[in-house]
Design a protein that fits this description.
Shape: rod-shaped
Bound molecules: zinc ion
Strand content: 5-15%
Number of helices: 1
Order of helices and strands: EEH
Length: 58
């Protein structure tokens, strides 16, 4: 046991993530979970603009 790797839970999917220096997404397990988490708080201030459907005219 010369190396101890800390493990954390991904905040998004709760998957076990090895706290590795090679993991640029920590504490997330992957880029997708990181983006999902970022999107969760960003979504609060970001509102999707309503689209006015343009009916085709003859
Ligand atoms: Zn995850």
């Amino acid at each position: 046991m010369d190396k101890q790797i800390k493990e954390v839970n991904c905040p998004t999917c709760k998957k076990i993530v090895k706290w590795d220096a090679d993991n640029p997404y920590k504490p997330f397990c992957c880029e997708r979970c990181k983006l999902i988490d970022f999107g969760a708080w960003a979504d609060d201030s970001y509102s999707v603009p309503e689209q006015n459907p343009d009916l085709p005219q003859d």
